[in-house]
Amino acid sequence: MKTQLLPSVLASSLFFALNAHADHQAQESEDDDFLDFSLEELISLDIPDVTSVSRKKQRLMDSAAAIYVITSEDILRSGVTSIPEALRMVPGMQVARLNGNIWSISTRGFNYIFANKLLVLIDGRTVYSPLFSGVNWDVQDTLMEDIDRIEVIRGPGAALWGANAVNGVINVITKKAADTQGNLVSLGAGNEEKAFGAYRHGGEFGETGFYKVYVKTFERDGLAKADGSDANDDWKMKRVGFRAEWKPAADTDFTLLGDIYEGTTRPALTIFKNDEPYAGDKGMQTFENTSRDQRGGNLIAHWKKTLSDTEDYSLKAVIDDYQNFDYRVTEKRQSFDLEFQHYFQPIENHDLVWGLSFRRTWYQMSDMRYIIHRDENGQPKDSRQDNLYSLFAQDDITLNHHWNVSFSARYEHNEFTGKEFQPNAKLTWKVNDNRTLWASVSKAVKTPSVSETSVYTDNITFFEADFDIPYAERKKVLAITDNRDLESEKLTAFELGYREQFGSSFRLDVTGFYNRYSDIVAYVAQTSCPDGSPIIGGFICPTTRSNFYRLPSTLINGIDATTYGLETVADWQVKDWWKLQLSYSWLQVDASPNTSNPNLQFALKGNEELIENLSANHTMNLRSNMNLSHQWYFDVWIRGISNMKNANVPGYTALDVRLAKKVNENLEFSLVAQNLFDKQRDEFNEIFSGLSATEIEESWYAQIRWSF
Amino acid sequence: MSIFTNASAKATIKVTTKVTIISLVSAILFSFQLNTARAATSPEDKIKTAIIFKLTKFISWPKKTQSLTICVLGEGSINNELHKINRKNTMGRRLSVTHRNANSPFEKLCDALFIHNIDNVTVKSVLKRLEGKPVLTISDIRSFVDYGGMIGLKRSGKKINFSINNTSATNANLNINSKLLKLAKTVK
């Protein structure tokens, strides 16, 4: 699994070290001398995590990347009920909810629901919808109690993970079956989280095997419309999954896991009913209760042979099925991945990892009402198949106790742009045990997606009549024609980082980045009408409605951009019962057209503003965890984000509070309030998808967790 | 570059496909042919070893000699860890850790025997041979204490605990300190 390529995130990581009761363990895994422990201690301590131990035992503190780990404790104590909401904790991660179940999540700029520069993995399985150019966050779920951690690397992880890991990698890692034995019941209810429940059972099989099975279901209330009425985008989901691990031989580990899910939500869509008989000046209409039902499932098999501390092989196969009955288009997608990885030390102080991977994706599209997949002649095409091959290698060289350098590169072949090469170099300087400086330079690409190269979109994107162009008296609907000749967007990224541990209670982590992008995809006007009708004034087309024009547009690699910023995290163990974490990020984006073609200048100017105004410039998180007496726990989370100009959302601050009481080791009651004192809040707006934005409301829920 | 319009690209893809598949397959085949070198040790191995080391302090053998021999039966990464406690002192006796095969005369050579990673048939036959002999039998094999083994180590969740079959131990003239019995998860 790619997980293991991450800098080793051991129990010795500083995140844990700051955790008072884990302090003990933190030291052990550093010098692993358990022999000095008493027997009572030995049987009561948790085995340190070894997920990434097979790589060099590198503390989180020493990794040459802007890595942030959301621990399982963070997840449980924040009261978040979904993975996208948990990501709000990550410094610089901008998370905005568009409606009941669609999020825009990005880091280091480009915050949009079609955010396509982040790679998201769940237990090593890639989740990304090439048809919509984004992540279907609404179906990425598991038991919150069973998430071991979420590792987030901001910045290009491309050399190891492949295309689209341009601005970062999010890796959700769930707990092993061996660590989730016995039964767990988690039930909750509230005003927004109407009802949710999960049950997990873990047991043993054979001589070496562990298994677990789980079910999860939830029903979430719809959000609110701007006028305060119910938006009716209620969201229901059911999920069943399992995991099994066993050792076919002493040096071999085999893991099999999978789940199936089914869900329904009915978001409001604003569409241009082009197919209905002429109805005067009616055109743009908002329809509630349009389908976005989804189902799917996946199976992951992972085999690993460990030859020694410094050599292992692994082979992973993933089958994934996803079916999205979206009103705009029904998408069915199956993919198969095969990945081989080998780690060894060819010479002393060189840790070498190399691997090969292959992915094949099959698509079937139907009901192509507004999003139409097409062949090279522009005819609707209801299926396709894509292949992706890649080869990667990383050499991590320990120069001496203080200096470490690492080179990695990835070569891949994709269907859209052919060959891509993505190299990366990192340098770490361990000034002393408590201070680390690191630097990294990398190249990454974001390859064009299916949606950009073979999909014609029409009748769901609107500009109001006052839009600042000629023929302003009428509303306009935007038609977006695919461009098969799009190139990859390219990034050269420079990062500098500094981490320091002050005494045993304070830690600081600062990252600065400077990114240069070229050939970013932009919308430009076309000079002919998609339906062949004569063009008016050189850039607009008639429609079946007298009060509407159609703007024909297409995509080109028309924008270059520079982004730079700073991300900081400070952890402070105020008292042994009180922990504070403050994070603050600052981001600047400067875009410019990369062509002097006068015909494109106007359109590209609009794109330039769009890109510059997508993300907020400032984000902030303050989290406080208190362990009070008599097993009471009190947690507060304040988060703030400055205004997002393009989304037309002013800056806001949100407050979450959680109070929990542990009756004993196995029984916990909690009360969570989210977005406290906020009757309702608009977090995101956009015009391209046709989806109506709905507003987040204050949420209260009570929960009980019982293990037996 | 588009694959739909470009014949040479199609050719490239075919070649790439072949090369990738061949290299994937050969890499996989190659990986199966390797013989097992020294396996990596995990924190779990380290904790189990420490527990085994500590356990010896709570047992009294009928004959107290200068040295205490722990024999190891079975292959695996924990062996590296067990060798690290060789020559350490426990209750005034010097530990000696040696690796043995299934047919060794354990009752002559060992004071304690740690069995791991071996088939159940062998485990049962070894336990049968040692019935009533003063050899402390320890294992992390499931159901070990049910087979008549004396101490079974077991991982549950992120912790390792142990069960004791005190009947077997008493039959073998081994005295297990009551403190240890209190710490055990189950006692038979």
TrEMBL record, chain A:
TonB-dependent receptor plug domain sequence ranges: 60-169
Pfam families: Plug (PF07715), TonB_dep_Rec_b-barrel (PF00593)
Signal sequence segment: 1-22
Entry annotated with the keyword ATP-binding: no
Topological type in the membrane: Multi-pass membrane protein
UniProt domain TonB-dependent receptor-like beta-barrel: residue ranges: 265-676
Gene3D superfamilies (alphabetical): TonB-dependent receptor, beta-barrel domain, TonB-dependent receptor, plug domain
Localization, UniProt: Cell outer membrane
Keyword annotations from UniProtKB, A to Z: Cell outer membrane, Membrane, Receptor, Signal, TonB box, Transmembrane, Transmembrane beta strand, Transport
SUPFAM superfamilies: Porins (SSF56935)
UniProt superkingdom: Bacteria
Alphabetized InterPro entries for the sequence: Beta-barrel_TonB, Beta-barrel_TonB_sf, Plug_dom, Plug_dom_sf, TonB-dep_rcpt-like
Family: Belongs to the TonB-dependent receptor family. Hemoglobin/haptoglobin binding protein subfamily.
Protein's recorded name: TonB-dependent receptor
Taxonomic source organism: Endozoicomonas euniceicola
TrEMBL record, chain B:
Pfam families in UniProt: DUF4154 (PF13689)
Name this protein carries in UniProt: YfiR family protein
